[in-house]
Design a protein that fits this description.
The protein is α+β, with helices and mostly antiparallel strands. 18% of the residues lie in helices and 24% in strands. The strands form two sheets. Strands 3-1-8-9-13 form a five-stranded antiparallel sheet. A five-stranded mixed barrel has the order 4-5-11-10-7.
């Protein structure tokens, strides 16, 4: 499952990345949990960022459900076989079959949180893009529900999940959220996209494009928030050594130690004929996606 994720990119960065306008401002959140309002781009207004409640309730429900995830395979892969390539059972699930056909959304994310199947968030990892392509889009579905006791309308969403890949398997997790290819995002939002094309997007992503490292289990508490939640407490799954990667991730709490990055920078820059003066105590800076100021700007 994918029950926690991170959204910290500035509003302007989200608008530029998805070619949209924000209808309302929102706060950065390093621990998006069920019940939180978070930014999404929905099929009913694909040129605008909306705020929706994380935790899906179908419009016909008599009570609120808070379904945070929807399995792409439905009941067809109950053992979570990572090699599964069969039919996508979500099309037949009463809870989701309407939304998957006509009410899809892009869930704006900078990273997401997973833990091993047994320990769950007692041993959490933050999973993030290696090459700096953030924010990115998790595949979501949405619906409007009216609370019968108050008459209040609540628009909510769920994140679709699929089989695990080598990265989530290395963590010990049996599922992974669906991450959309940027070239497919507009097709995902379009209600006229053939269902066959939609289901083809519900496969797992290239694990080499992402990385992960362990963080504190404090993140289990949905009331906790802040950049300290993303500080590493151990080594990354895939080694990373260049200072470019350090620079892009340091604002996100994901960088290497300064001394290790400096050593790697000296080797990398020397090989490219770039002189580096270690006496200055700083690394060469690059204009990358990570340089967006404070984490909470």
């Amino acid at each position: 499952m994918c029950g926690r994720y991170v959204t910290v990119s500035p509003i302007k960065a989200v608008e530029q990345r998805f070619n949209v306008k924000a209808s309302k401002p929102w706060n950065s959140n390093t621990n998006v949990s069920h019940g939180d309002c978070a930014p999404v781009v929905a099929s009913d207004n694909p040129k605008e960022v909306q705020l929706m409640q994380f935790g899906f309730t179908p419009g016909w429900a008599k009570k609120q459900y808070y379904m945070i995830n929807a399995r792409a395979e439905g009941d067809r892969n109950s053992v979570n076989d990572p090699s599964y390539t069969g039919a996508m059972g979500i099309l037949d699930k009463p809870m989701f079959r309407k939304a998957i056909r006509s009410q899809r959304c892009l869930v704006v994310a900078d990273a997401f949180i997973e833990g091993p199947e047994r320990e769950k968030l007692s041993k959490p990892y933050v999973i993030y893009p290696r090459e700096g392509t953030r924010p990115f889009a998790l595949a979501g579905i949405w619906d409007d529900w009216c609370d019968p006791s108050s008459g209040e309308y609540i628009r909510s969403f769920a994140i679709l999940t699929t089989v695990s890949n080598s990265l989530t398997q290395a963590i010990g997790h049996q599922r992974a959220p669906v991450i959309l290819n940027p070239d497919k995002e507009r097709e995902w939002l379009d209600p006229n996209t053939p269902l066959g094309d939609i289901t083809s997007m519900l496969r797992t992503w290239d694990a080499r494009q992402f990385n992960a490292y362990p963080i504190s289990p404090i993140i289990r508490d949905p009331r906790c928030n802040g950049s300290h939640l993303l500080e590493p407490v151990g080594q990354r799954i895939w080694p990373e050594f260049t200072h470019e990667i350090h620079s892009t991730l340091e604002v996100f709490g994901m960088g290497e130690s300064q001394s290790r990055s400096r050593r790697a920078a000296e080797v990398s820059d020397t090989s490219r004929g770039v002189r580096y003066d270690s006496s200055q105590g700083t690394l060469p800076r690059h204009n990358t996606w990570g340089h967006q100021g404070s984490l909470f700007e």
